[in-house]
Write a structure and sequence with these properties.
This protein has 510 residues and is mainly alpha-helical. It has 22 helices and no strands.
């Protein structure tokens, strides 16, 4: 994919994801407003974590395992029959998995939250049983997104969370009054269903759901069977970081899990917008280049992706650390979410943010391995990462409480990223490390200049109501962004120059 097309589609997907994530933050704000950092919020978050882990594991696995195999057989005219068979097979597996998890909910909750007891434990089990069946729909949603990405339809998969978020917001505000936190759980389940249903028309237009024979013995099923288990295990292990954090959080005072969750939502916002947009566009391209044997272009695309991660995410990482209290206050401090909850959440956010660039690099390099049909290496690295996460949490939880849990996550991510980069270089050879390092130090220098300006600007924030806070923080972020982009322009960062060339070409056409 050319620089121009990569930037164009990344921009389109980014805009859609920004809208989606803004709705996601309204959702989190609604939950914080109604329930705060309370014991019932902890119960809901633990109940939601198992479906979330399995969703990320299955969703990522299906996309990364399905896209290269489907692409291969689609060229031979067997793509639709193969995809139809995968839908039926995956649906059956997910239904069985959900049924088992509903039965085993008491044991699962005991493993995930060993510190829970009494009413909190019973409430968590009840909500787990409401949410577990949603795995069927979010798993099929991931398969639908993977298929649409191969068709270069990036729009529909990018808006699947729109109706889901609106439903959860309504459930928190309205159902929460009458039915309490259980009403929120039911709203979340309904939202999971919509994530699949909204993609059905677009998939149907591809002819996937036409009545035809199922190819149970299709060779692609066997290939996916080989590719998927390591990705599922790796994805589940990666999401186990959330479980690890909540296991340790359940041993801390009430509200610690909620503070970790709200800070985690803010910290992952750049990932869920910019990085996800890049991965959505770049991964099918990496698959095509590898299939065609264009290893040079494969490396260039990978390097461009990593460079864009650095340029876009580094200043956000620094900005979240500097403005952690102000951002948390703006987003969540209202209703049951008080000043104490703001500082508790901001404390964790500062430590979580230190792993933000590492998350982007890691996900980008994982996709490079998946494009080469190597799903084992990322799985092994992820398992190592989880072990490191447990170790760091155990060491740091004493002196830093829930902040130690966040710092442990960041440290394990960064170490895992270095290990993954080393293994990728061994597999494909150098892929522009010197140019990546040049982008890294230039973006780092520009981010430090930005941080100095923003730190001074914080002294002039006057606070007040939501609108005034939003205006003041927005202006300060805008000034910081201007300083950052001016610096990387003066330093000649390659990724910015590519973007400027694209803008100039468009203007010349107009």
């Amino acid at each position: 994919m050319s620089d121009r097309n990569m930037l164009k589609w990344t921009g389109i997907v980014t805009v859609l994801l920004v809208i989606s994530r803004l709705l996601g933050f309204v959702r989190e704000t609604a939950i914080a407003y109604r329930f705060g950092t309370s014991a019932v919020t902890d119960a809901y978050l633990v109940a939601a974590v198992i479906p979330q882990i399995l969703f990320m594991a299955f969703n990522d696995a299906v996309k990364t395992g399905f896209i290269p195999v489907y692409g291969e057989y689609h060229r031979q005219g067997e793509g639709n029959a193969f995809a139809r068979t995968v839908y039926v097979l995956l649906g059956a597996i997910l239904i069985l998995t959900s049924f088992v998890l509903v039965l085993a909910a008491p044991l699962v909750v005991r493993l995930v939250a060993p510190g829970f007891g009494g009413e909190t434990y019973g409430l968590t089990v009840a909500m787990s049983r409401i949410l577990m069946p949603g795995l069927v729909f979010i798993g099929l949603s991931g398969l639908s997104a993977g298929l649409l990405h191969t068709k270069k339809n990036f729009v529909v998969p990018a808006i699947v969370a729109f109706p889901s978020n609106l439903i959860v917001i309504a459930a928190a505000i309205f159902f929460g009054v009458r039915f309490g936190i259980v009403g929120l759980a039911w709203g979340t389940f309904i939202g999971m269903i919509t994530q699949f249903l909204i993609q059905v028309p677009a998939v149907a237009r591809q002819g996937i759901f036409k009545r035809d024979k199922l190819l149970w013995k299709h060779p692609g099923i066997k290939k996916m069977g080989v590719l998927l288990p390591p990705v599922i295990l790796g994805g589940a292990a990666l999401e186990l970081k959330s479980v690890v954090d909540r296991v340790f959080g359940s041993l801390l005072p009430e509200g610690s899990i909620a503070a970790l969750n709200f800070s985690n939502r803010i910290y992952l916002l750049p990932h869920s917008i910019l990085i996800l947009a890049l991965l959505t566009v770049i991964y099918p391209t990496l698959v095509e280049l590898h299939v065609e044997g264009k290893i040079g272009e494969f490396k260039d695309t990978l390097r461009q992706g990593i460079g864009l991660v650095i340029v876009s995410i580094f200043p956000m990482m620094v900005g979240l650390v500097v403005l952690r209290v102000e951002i948390v206050r703006l987003l969540f401090e209202r209703g049951a979410f008080d000043v104490s909850a703001t500082h508790s959440t901001a404390f964790a956010l500062a430590f979580y943010s230190l792993g933000l660039v590492g998350v982007g690099w890691q996900l980008m390099m994982n996709r490079a391995f998946y494009a080469m049909k190597d799903t084992v290496t990322p799985m092994i690295v992820t398992i190592v990462l989880v072990v490191l996460n447990i170790f760091f949490n155990w060491i740091l939880i004493g002196p830093l409480q829930h902040g130690g849990i966040a710092l442990g996550t960041a440290l394990s991510i960064n170490i895992g990223t270095v290990l993954l980069g080393y293994l990728l270089r061994k597999k494909i050879g150098p892929f522009g490390g010197s140019r990546i390092f040049k982008t890294l130090w230039k973006s780092g220098l520009a981010s430090l200049a930005m941080a100095a300006v923003v730190t001074v600007g914080r002294n002039y924030l006057t606070g007040g109501g939501f609108s005034r806070q939003a205006l003041e923080i927005g202006i300060l972020i805008g000034v910081g962004a201007a300083v950052y982009f001016a610096m990387i322009y003066l330093l000649g960062v390659e990724e910015l120059q590519a973007g400027l060339r694209l803008i100039r070409r468009r203007k010349s056409r107009v």
